[in-house]
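Tokens in:
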């Protein structure tokens, strides 16, 4: 990944999904609003959260990573677990 390490935080989830997040995303009020919607049960906020955190390309990569090859579906529970892993990574907040 040829990203500026000063601007991005890189990580890997326990399932092996590699990602990089703009360090400024943790301080984005729009993201906090979306996370609040998600916490209140609005699952429709999840795609917007993914775009804020990962951007379009990484969102697509995450979907491929979570794809159930037997059913051809992308379980929202798997995607949500990956988002939780990214957002709760203590190194993201230290960045």
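Residues out:
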């Amino acid at each position: 990944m040829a990203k500026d390490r000063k601007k991005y935080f890189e990580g890997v989830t326990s399932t092996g999904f590699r990602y990089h997040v703009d360090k400024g995303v943790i301080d984005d009020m729009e993201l906090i609003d979306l996370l609040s919607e998600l916490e209140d049960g609005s699952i429709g906020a999840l795609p917007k959260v993914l775009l804020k955190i990962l951007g379009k390309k990484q969102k697509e990569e995450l979907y491929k990573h979570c794809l159930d090859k037997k059913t051809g579906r992308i379980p929202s529970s798997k995607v949500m677990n990956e988002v939780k892993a990214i957002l709760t990574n203590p190194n993201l907040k230290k960045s």
